[in-house]
Amino acid sequence: MDNQNMNGNNQDKNDMKNGKGRGRSIIVMLVISIVLTLLFWKAYDRITNGVQKEIPYSGFIEMLENGEIADIELYSAKIKFTSSLEENSLNKATYTAVAIKDDKLADRLKTAHQKYGTTYKGIDESGSAIIGTVLSYVVMILAFYLFLSLIMKRSGGIMGVGKANAKVYMEKKTGVTFADVAGEEEAKESLTEMVDFLHNPKKYLEIGAKLPKGALLVGPPGTGKTLLAKAVAGEANVPFFSMSGSSFIEMYVGVGASRVRDLFKQASQMAPCIIFIDEIDAIGRSRDTGRGSDSEREQTLNQLLAEMDGFDTSKGIVILAATNRPEVLDKALLRPGRFDRRVIVEKPDLKGRIDTLKVHSKDVKMDESVDFKELALATSGAVGADLANIINEGALAAVRAGRALVSQQDLIGAVEVVFAGKEKKDRLLSPQEKRIVAYHEVGHALLVALQKNTEPVQRITIVPRTMGALGYVWQVPEEEKYLESKAELMADLVTLLGGRAAEELKFDSVTTGAANDIEQATKKARAMITMYGMSDKFGLVQLESIEGQYLDRNLALQCSDETATKIDKEIRDMLKECYITAKKILSEHMKSLDAIAEYLVERESITGKEFMQILSESVSSGNV
Ligand code: ADP
Ligand code: ZN
Questions:
Q1: I need a surface site. Which of 306, 482, 531, 582 has the fewest CB within 10 A?
Q2: Could you please report the per-residue DSSP string of 432-455?
Q3: pLDDT, tens digit, for every residue of 351-384?
Q4: pLDDT tens for residues 411-443?
Q5: pLDDT the model gives residue 88
Q6: CATH 3.40.50.150 fits 10-127, yes or no
Q7: Residues lining ligand 1, CB < 6 A?
Q8: d(CA 87, CA 82)
């Protein structure tokens, strides 16, 4: 992901290595330009002068005396002329004849001129005229050359195939250690062996142990796979070569394979070292998916397999590859002797998130209000990259506010920026829209508070955000949960539908604002039925399976069409029931809803504390 810090020295070395290839491609491009220029002149000549016919001198004399010639151009060694018979024809030809010494030519021309009106002129072939022609050729060749080199740059080169443009990044020292990678203890543990091997290959070889050549780092984007690979290199103090799987593949067949060869050649000169291939699924996708002409990818993959089999572990090269779609990888890649180790890099849990926040705030000046646990609780589902981003956004916010230390408030704001987008101050909702959004959000919040099973409200806001939300309720759990009960899930569904319920109760109309809630509620209800066995109608049957565990999880139905229809109905019934519950609870607390919503319209953002206060006031005054 972040490859920007490549090593300067190495860049030079790469360029030098490519010097030879570049010289060759310059020559090839020059030749092409010359050929193009010649062809161009020929075509140009053809268009302006028509067909060229060469005839003997005698033929010329004959035509001249018969009065069949219109114009004559006399060169020192040739005569060029056009026929008067073809003057109006489309196929007008230019005739040439090789001149011979003819004393009578002058008389003949004169006669023809007098008799038939034939015109004739001599052409100056001395220096300046020739220079003119030559110059125009040179200019043309240069123009073609420039044009070609522009095209080449765009397309990544035809001649320097696989040499000049393979983006191999090499860092002599990554400067990253395991201490920079927070959480991921299991992953680090599996990788320490590799580090030890790179330190001291002899120890392993003497005993006759074969070490894994490669390990596959598997996990969702942003969880620190690249970082871990760099840390392995850093811990072992060896160079780090990295390349992204997608950058092997170009539009020309054979490029990828030659890049793989190049990469391994460079790496073996620097061994011991680490080769890191990011997004290996770009080349390692299963070969038998039947997607037609993927021959380029296939060749690249074959080359990679060949290189992996070919090198000898004793040299101390370890290949790490990252992917978030392990299920699509070709089985051949996972065979023993190739990427036979799999290191799972998971989304961090609560402790992992706290540690990640700590790692990233090492150099950030913070005041004593900062509470990492609270932040970690508010960021469930976030990956390392998000957390790094949050700390940075928080620091930026502090600078913007002109403070020297980052506060918890800055960081909470940053969490909201990362998850919901920036506040859109200039989007002005009409007063009526603002009220609708306020009732909608308070509807959600009230249901959170009134159903004891759900998490407490942290904040409610109706300031529109750049990622599309017009408002939201910020919920933070008190502890991280790994299991959810059916009752909790049902309460979540009621909460999700509470926004729409409040709108309907108050305004007796519904808006598009609930689209996202409905989407989430449907997903949740579906999962309860098809995966968690929480519907009595179906019982404990798996009706859907997950594909692509680490990316957006796609679900694949595992049942008959008939059952699928029933599932749809069951989802509908379930959501209907929850919606009725939501409306029932809210209608019993209309006064509170009004009070809080009106307060929110005024303030635009209120804290969970303010919310609870108004709620308990209106409840205790009997004003429910
Ligand atoms: P991946 O390769 O898995 O997509 P990266 O390794 O590129 O993710 O992570 C991107 C950035 O996120 C890293 O440079 C680092 O700043 C941060 N990051 C991710 N995971 C962690 C972690 N476990 N500990 C510390 N920082 C992390
Ligand atoms: Zn909503």
A1: 482
A2: HHHHHHHHHHHHHHHHHHHSTTSP
A3: 999 999 999 998 999 988 889 988 898 888 889 9
A4: 988 998 888 888 877 767 888 999 999 999 999
A5: 64
A6: no
A7: 1-2, 181-184, 221-227, 322, 356, 359, 384-385, 388
A8: 8
Q: Supply the residue whose CA is at minimum distance from atom 6 of ligand 1.
A: 224
Catalytic residue among 235, 441, 504, 570: 441
Q: Whose CA is nearest to atom 15 of ligand 1?
A: 385
- Residues 257 and 299 sit within 8 Å (Cβ to Cβ): yes
Query: 431-620 adopts what CATH topology?
Result: Methane Monooxygenase Hydroxylase; Chain G, domain 1 (1.20.58)
pLDDT in tens, 75-97: 878 888 888 777 666 666 788 88
Segments making up each domain of the chain, as ranges: 10-127, 167-344, 350-419, 431-620
Q: Which of 59-63, 111-115, 610-614 has the highest mean pLDDT?
A: 610-614
Q: Ligand 1, residues 180, 227, 228, 242: which to mutate, most atoms within 8 A of Cβ? A: 227
598 belongs to the catalytic site: no
Atom 5 of ligand 1 has which residue's CA nearest to it?
224
CATH of 350-419, one of 3.90.180.10, 1.25.40.10, 3.40.50.300, 1.10.8.60: 1.10.8.60
Q: State the DSSP code for 117.
A: -
Residue 182 Cα, ligand 1 centroid: separation in angstroms? 9
Domain 167-344 = CATH 3.60.70.12: no
Of ligand 1's listed atoms, the one at least distance from the Cα of 278 is 2
Dist CA 497 CA 493 (whole Å):
6
User: What pLDDT does residue 158 have?
Assistant: 46
Q: Confirm if 459 and 606 have CB atoms less than 8 A apart.
A: yes
Q: CB–CB of 171/240 below 8 Å?
A: yes
For 151-204, the pLDDT digits (tens) are: 776 554 444 444 445 566 778 788 888 888 888 888 888 888 888 888 887 888
CA 380–ligand 2 middle distance (angstroms)? 20
Q: Give the residue carrying structure tokens 């959000």.
A: 441
